[in-house]
Amino acid sequence: MADVASKSLSGLLFGLVQITFYRNPAVTEQMLKDELYPELSEQDFQVLVEKMNGILRSITSADMEFNQLEAFLTAQTKKQKGITPDQAAVLTKFWKSHKAKIRECLINQNKWENCLRNFSWRVDLKTQSKHLDQTNTPVALVELELGKNDQESEFLCLELNENKVNQLLKKLTEIEESITALSCTN
User: Fold this and answer.
1) I need a labelling partner for 148 at 20 to 30 A (CA). Which of 53, 67, 84, 89 fits?
2) Mind listing the pLDDT tens digit for each residue in 112-150?
3) Within this chain, do residues 29 and 87 fall inside the same structural domain, yes or no?
4) Which of 61, 87, 62, 58 is closest to 74 using CA atoms?
5) Whole-model pTM above 0.70?
6) Burial profile 9-26: b = 16 or more Cβ within 10 angstroms, e = fewer
7) Is beta strand 137-147 parallel, antiparallel or unpaired with respect to 154-160?
8) Do residues 120 and 96 share a domain?
9) pLDDT tens digit string along 10-55?
């Protein structure tokens, strides 16, 4: 009997993650009730859904490690109208197997702009130019692969002379110093 309850709760958790985090329109709370908890009243099912959704949101927003999760779920079992130890065990098992996927999904959903997918560079020697004084000078060729979520990548190619490379390095140093200063104050 406990095995059936564990499987139903695992299915409910998976369904709630599909609805809440993956935004899967094919999964609905009514479908979960009909398939997993047909014997529960509508009110009891809503109480269970709200409780599990709240716990999932807390676990996810804190990006809980397993020792934090254990302490959190232990506290939930001691609360009045909290969860049972069996439910805590199912939640622990569920989080262990789904944490990475949920985290990756949330990160991808919250990216506003393109991100850097790949970066490559090389230094060449310029052998031809409109201006004679620019031949036989080193040139840095930089290729950036940019993209957002599952969209096709865009490529940005840059050709930098020695002066531009030095300017770029100076800007990167300024950025690094700013990040270091901000991270030290927090």
Assistant:
1) 53
2) 777 788 889 999 887 776 766 667 788 899 999 988 766
3) yes
4) 87
5) no
6) bbebbbbbbbbebeeeee
7) antiparallel
8) no
9) 999 999 999 998 889 999 999 999 999 999 999 999 999 999 999 9
Domain range for 124: 115-185
Buried residues in 139-159 as b, exposed as e (16+ CB within 10 A): bbebebebbeeeeeeeeeeee
Place of tokens 């398939």: 35
Same domain, 152 and 88: no
- Minimal CA–CA distance to 36: which of 26, 51, 48? 48
Lookup: tokens for 60: 């996810």
Q: Interior CA angle at 109 toward 52 and 88, to 5°?
A: 20
- Asked if residue 39 and residue 104 are part of one domain, the reply reads yes
**For residues 68-88, average pLDDT:** 92
How many residues are given for the chain? 186
Q: In this structure, are 13 and 64 located in the same domain?
A: yes
